[in-house]
Amino acid sequence: MGEEIRAYIGWYDEAAQADLTRVYQTMRAALPEEPERIGWGMPTFGKNVIHFAGAKKHVGIYPGPEAVKHFAPVLDSMRYAHTKGAIRLPYGRVDLGLVSKIALWCRDHSK
Question: What is the DSSP letter of 79?
Answer without folding.
Answer: T
